[in-house]
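Hi everyone, sorry if this is the wrong subforum. Our group has a chain we'd like a structural model of before ordering constructs, and none of us has done structure prediction before. Sequence below.
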Amino acid sequence: MWKQAIEDTLQKTRANIERFGDLFPHVSENDIYHLNPNNEWTDGFWSGILWLSYQYTGEKVFQEAAQRTVASFKERLENNVALEHHDIGFLYSLSSKAQWILERDENARQLTLQAADVLMKRWRPKGQYIQAWGPEGDAANGGRIIIDCMLNLPLLYWAYEQTGNEKYKEVAIIHADLSRRYLVRGDDSSYHTFYFDQETGEPLRGGTHQGYQDGSTWTRGQAWGIYGFALSYRYTKNPLYLETAVRMARYFFERLPQDDVVYWDFNAPVNAETKRDSSASAIASAGTLEILEHLAADDANRAYLENGVQRSMTGLVKSYATIGKPDAQGFIERGSYSVRGGAAPDDYMIWGDYYYLEALLRLEKGFKGYWYE
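Answer:
Right subforum, don't worry. Here is the predicted structure as tokens:
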């Protein structure tokens, strides 16, 4: 089943290389991807899909397309295009760092280190956190962290390993610890966002930007936490990070609906109109496969988490994948970008496509993605 699903993504990616040209897919409308000239936070995921496809097949069509995206990311960094946010890890881990991992291209390595320095500019020494969005001192966002950042921290861990500069790792660990303390709640659910006083770092309140309400659990946020804490464990070997990832994964899988693909928020009222988020299921699956690499064979959580991944991925392949629709641009249907904001609430998500393919390749070939070497 996994191999057939992978082959389907490869067929679609070949067609998308022709469709997209030098542009980058973001989210869809009426099953057509919105394209941009590399100015969205999501553009690394298209690059990641191309690198994964090349790694799996060895085909030059994927390699050359992926290399062109890295050239675009170099230009984006040089011109400082839409980099006023913390998603630098999403952008450069899956583009230039992927190229470094696969091809040992020194220019790609240097570009990735430069990107890590851009992310470090988000560090706020007074508050001791990485600011998610907006300029320093911004009234609305100056004191805000969000759980998505857990997937951006691997860029800093990697930069430390490459350079020996302790500051990269120190900042990543402080932010991970803060996220664990304030974004992960006592019942293993999560806030999407948390606010701190910009001057003192005093914790103020938890909230949401894309979830159902401030106290609810946005499923994609929970998935970011699962994968992000698992990766922080890989880099630091702090057992608290692995424990947190496991607890968040159990919370996620304990709440799977009948078809095993989650709704957009675990607390949203469920009826015939409730939106799904297939991308959350894909992220959680890839993240849990990372967790399983670190659990002992006799760990009490292993069987449960393995079953959760199998259920989620089988649900995606059988009920949400566009297998049998050769003209489809996306790999999995019914992702949601911002249900509350009315932005692509039931569409293709390029990050959903990326994590779906990464999870398939982990299952079929043991590939790891490009979050670490």
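For your construct planning: Residues 64 and 180 are 40 Å apart (CA to CA). The radius of gyration is 19 Å.
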